[in-house]
Specification:
By secondary structure, this protein is an all-beta fold. The protein has one domain (2-117): Immunoglobulin-like (Sandwich), CATH 2.60.40. It is built from no helices and ten strands. The chain has a five-stranded antiparallel sheet with strand order 2-9-8-5-6, with no helix packed on it. A three-stranded antiparallel sheet has the order 3-4-7, with no helix packed on it. Strand 3 (29-35) and strand 4 (41-48) form a beta hairpin. The radius of gyration is 22 Å and the shape is elongated.
């Protein structure tokens, strides 16, 4: 029996507030941010009624921008791999000129995993007659 150890980061999202000032979520920008279980992948979907593009930013806990991209579509669904980020708390922001959505996410430390490879026992060979 042999073992192979691997590490996988995971990501969790939780809505901090729909707006930085705590006001209700904008009706013209609808956002869904989901994480995949035990995975560093972040799934982002949005629809914007007013604008043809939305800025996508990831900030660390000090507010420094780690990722900044303009998604040039009024509807978007994409997956972002956060495996390169160190464990910690981050903020995902999707601002437009009139609306702003933000959510807090947490990237966890790698989770060790073990995979056991078991050799299948062979049937005895029939005697050659």
């Amino acid at each position: 029996m042999s073992y192979f150890a691997a590490g996988t980061r995971f990501c969790q999202a939780q809505r901090a507030s729909a707006q930085p000032n705590g006001s209700p979520a904008p009706a013209s920008l609808r956002v869904i941010i989901r994480t995949l279980p035990n995975s560093p992948l972040l799934r982002v979907c949005y629809e914007s009624d007013k604008y043809g593009s939305v800025r996508f930013q990831i900030r660390n806990k000090r507010g420094s921008v780690l990722h900044d991209d303009v998604l040039r579509a009024s509807r978007y669904a994409g997956t972002f791999d956060l495996a390169a980020l160190p464990a910690g708390r981050y903020t995902v922001e999707l601002p437009t000129p009139a609306d702003h959505h933000e959510e807090a996410i947490r990237v966890g430390k790698p989770i060790p995993a073990a995979v056991a490879l078991v050799a299948k026992e062979r049937e005895p060979s029939p005697a050659i007659q």
